[in-house]
User: Which sequence fits this backbone?
């Protein structure tokens, strides 16, 4: 039995002990504040959980989930010449390659996730006032003094007893999948150790904070999660906490992927001042966070079932990350004004205006190659495609550096209901809830093929900018540079309860949909890079312009002969992006059977369809779902096409206290 598996079993045993203690306490009714939030199981079928014992609330959620792949992962490698003596050097020349590493066949387990979350909330009012009399001497009223401690443990058994592609390292030694460079092979031990340290087991104090009301003020201090805005599943204004896809991937609920950060959060209830003031229920909220948590730390490791396409271990590229320091210089923070206001015949709505500084989940990426010598014109000569001969671990063909610039987000949100009197004439039985956000993102990372691809910027006059002392990376190197840009972002959502008696005579159906739009300001124009006559037959052309920093495939460079498929053809990023979500769910047998249908549609040509059914008998739940992900080609935009070859079936057994 492995150490990781023993640790997971200890978590399960601890959960059993906790359950026994709670059961023996008795006298408390289960919390009935459960039900469907406006989320789908790309998000979560969630509910409140916990039981009260005097001033203490104890909650627990535990589940085990297995995902089984229902299709082969992508694998397409084309050789320049018919392969001869495959398996013995020299290797056949690769002209084109596109794959998801490691290769996994349909029917193989992709995940066996164990999850435990235990939450302890303690109200200290009686202790401080009636016993210690601490608050009596204060010149202001202090109430609702509470603290919260949340433990989270996670384990994925696919790396210990799953299929061979995840349990072992045999594909790392396959020179067709991971070929060497200049006699250098991938450090398999280091790569596998990174994978296991990141994606096998975690046990941590997830959240820990204290909060209180003091007159019109409310404070919360500690490690916590803060969500602004009106969106579900995908985020717009809700970009305060980073999202971690390294443990479980994109398909687990967003609430399980959000990373708490250390922050001071405060709000002030603004008085109305005079009765004629149309604004009421107004409050001003702000936060300041000193924390170095980012989405790239640790990021999805190579060898994970949820790694992005064409990001397998590499002997040609050294990947580095620059994580910001947790100090005042890198403080994140912002403010939001929230209020209710009349809207004429509609009634009233809730509105918010916010401005904050944060780190987005997509990092800034910059590549570096060998400069050689700097010629009279200031250009590098005699360098790339020779390997970098100085640096932390030579030789490498290139160095890739990930950073997280500070991004400013300024926006507004609004929510209001359309009265039933206006919609009953078109057959609607409920009041539609309209949700909307508009935000301007400033200084977000942006990329072009020419900035990232050294086969382009090194051969372009003035394209490779020499760096002396290498900005802390290496000496005598050059780079294509790094870009940031601005964008407009908009979302319009609607929630509706609607009776469809023929399908469910007793309960309504809940519909929730969102339409997202994003426009990249000052986007680089898309144009072919090389003369079409340079490409080999059947080889995709490379275009400059806006891209994601994820290779769609690799080709042998058209302007440099006798190269393996080592030039990345990055995924095109549309200037205008349109994306739609839809979720439909209802319940049967007094909430014991909960069917859900979730659909995500990227107008660029990618779709996710998730039918799901949950059988609930408190405190247990059993869920089955199927995730169908399709895209004819890898696309930017929402990014859902990046997992197009990861269709799977989920079986999940859950206990909620």
Assistant:
């Amino acid at each position: 039995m492995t150490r990781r598996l023993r640790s997971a079993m200890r978590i399960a045993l601890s959960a059993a002990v906790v359950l026994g203690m709670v059961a023996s306490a008795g006298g408390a009714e289960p919390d009935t504040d459960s039900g469907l939030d406006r989320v789908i199981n790309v998000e979560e079928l969630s509910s409140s959980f916990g039981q009260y014992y005097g001033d203490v609330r104890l909650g627990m959620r535990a589940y085990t989930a297995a995902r089984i792949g229902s299709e082969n992962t992508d694998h397409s490698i084309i050789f320049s010449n018919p392969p001869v003596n495959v398996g013995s050097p020299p290797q056949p020349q690769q002209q084109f390659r596109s794959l998801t590493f490691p290769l996994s066949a349909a029917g193989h387990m992709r995940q066996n996730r164990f999850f435990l979350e235990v939450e302890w909330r303690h109200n200290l009012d009686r202790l401080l006032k009636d016993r210690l009399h601490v608050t009596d001497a204060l010149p202001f009223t202090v109430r609702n003094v509470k603290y919260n401690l949340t433990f989270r443990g996670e384990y994925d058994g696919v790396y210990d007893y799953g299929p061979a592609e995840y349990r072992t390292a045999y594909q790392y030694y396959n020179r067709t999948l991971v070929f060497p460079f200049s006699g250098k092979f991938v450090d398999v031990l280091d790569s596998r150790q990174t994978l296991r340290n990141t994606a096998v087991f975690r046990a941590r104090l997830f959240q820990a904070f204290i909060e209180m009301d003091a007159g019109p003020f409310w404070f919360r201090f500690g490690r916590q999660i803060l969500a602004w805005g009106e969106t579900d599943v995908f985020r717009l204004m809700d970009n305060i906490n980073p999202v971690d896809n390294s443990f479980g991937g994109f398909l687990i609920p967003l609430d399980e992927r959000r990373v708490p950060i250390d922050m001071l959060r405060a709000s002030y209830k603004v008085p109305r001042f005079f009765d004629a003031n149309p604004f009421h229920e107004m409050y001003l909220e702000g936060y300041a966070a000193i924390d170095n948590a980012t989405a790239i730390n640790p990021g999805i490791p190579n060898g994970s079932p949820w790694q992005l396409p064409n990001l397998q271990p590499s002997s040609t590229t050294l990947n580095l990350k620059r994580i910001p320091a947790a100090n005042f210089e890198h403080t994140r923070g912002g403010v939001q004004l929230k209020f209710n206001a009349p809207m004429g015949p509609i009634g009233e709505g809730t509105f918010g205006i916010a401005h904050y500084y944060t780190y987005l989940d997509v990092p800034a990426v910059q590549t570096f190659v060998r400069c050689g010598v700097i010629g009279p014109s200031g250009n590098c000569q005699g360098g790339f495609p020779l390997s970098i001969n100085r640096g932390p671990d030579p030789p490498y063909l290139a160095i890739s550096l990930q950073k997280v610039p500070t991004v400013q987000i300024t926006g507004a949100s609004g929510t209001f209901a359309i009265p039933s009197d206006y919609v009953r004439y078109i057959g609607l039985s409920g009041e539609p809830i309209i949700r909307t956000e508009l935000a301007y993102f400033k200084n977000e990372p942006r990329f072009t093929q020419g900035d990232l691809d050294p086969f382009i910027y090194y051969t372009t006059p003035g394209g490779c900018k020499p760096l002396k002392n290498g900005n802390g990376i290496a000496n005598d190197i050059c780079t294509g540079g790094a870009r940031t840009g601005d964008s407009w972002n908009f979302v319009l959502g609607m929630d509706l309860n609607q009776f469809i008696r023929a399908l469910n005579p007793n309960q309504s159906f809940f519909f929730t949909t969102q339409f997202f739009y994003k426009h990249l300001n000052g986007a680089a124009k898309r144009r072919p890079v090389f003369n079409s006559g340079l490409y080999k037959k059947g080889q995709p052309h490379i275009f400059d312009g806006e891209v994601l920093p994820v290779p769609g495939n690799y080709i042998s460079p058209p302007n440099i002969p006798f190269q393996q498929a080592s030039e990345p053809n990055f995924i095109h990023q549309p200037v205008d992006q349109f994306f739609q979500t839809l979720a439909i769910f209802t319940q049967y047998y007094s909430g014991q059977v909960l069917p859900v249908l979730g659909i995500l549609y990227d107008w660029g040509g990618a779709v996710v369809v998730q039918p799901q059914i949950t059988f609930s008998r408190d405190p247990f739940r059993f869920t089955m779902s199927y995730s169908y992900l399709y895209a004819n080609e890898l696309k930017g935009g929402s990014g859902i096409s990046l997992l197009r070859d990861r269709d799977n079936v989920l079986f999940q057994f859950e206990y909620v206290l």
